[in-house]
Every structure is written in C-alpha cells, then in structure tokens.
Design a protein that fits this description.
This protein has about 80 residues and is of the alpha+beta class. It has one domain: Alpha-Beta Plaits, CATH 3.30.70. It contains two helices and two strands; from the N terminus they run E-E-H-H. The protein has a two-stranded antiparallel sheet with strand order 1-2. The longest helix has 12 residues. It is globular, with a radius of gyration of 12 Å.
Length: about 80
C-alpha cells in the first residue's frame, strides 16, 4: 500500500529528502507522494522514513493503493533495478 500526504501537511520540507525512491515532491499546495514509486520504504528501511520524520503525522497508508509486502518488494526491485 502506498502512502499519501493529507491536507494537514505544513510544507516543512523534511519528508522529501528522506524518501529513497524520490516518490515525494511538492504539489500545488502540499507535498504529494507518487503511488507508483512509493514502496513504504520496503527494501530500504524497516519503517517508512517520511512517517518517521513528519512532525504533524499526516502521512497515512493510502486505502486507494493497497499492496502486500511482496508487491511492495517487487516494486522496489523494479525501481532500483535489483530484480
């Protein structure tokens, strides 16, 4: 399951550099997460790094992009070329 950023985002800029897949970018009003690139840090870290650094806790799982750990690992392998 990919993550997403809610409208509680305060644009503090701490999440974007923490994303190992470059899935986070500035949107029109708040930061956004590309669900095609988000692996919840599977393959890189044990926990999603953006959630760890977010001071307002506004990065939940996206119910519109449900994926198993195996699917997230496969996405990681494709993105990084580790397949």
């Amino acid at each position: 399951m990919a993550l997403y950023i809610t409208d509680e985002c305060i644009n503090c800029d701490v999440c974007e550099p923490e994303c190992p897949n470059n899935a986070i970018s500035p949107g029109e009003e708040i930061y956004e997460i590309d669900p095609m690139l988000c692996t919840e840090c599977v393959g890189h870290y044990d926990e999603p790094q953006c959630q760890q650094v977010c001071p307002v806790d506004c990065i939940p799982k996206d119910p519109n992009h449900e994926e198993s750990k195996e699917e997230l690992m496969r996405k990681y392998e494709i993105i990084t070329g580790a397949a």
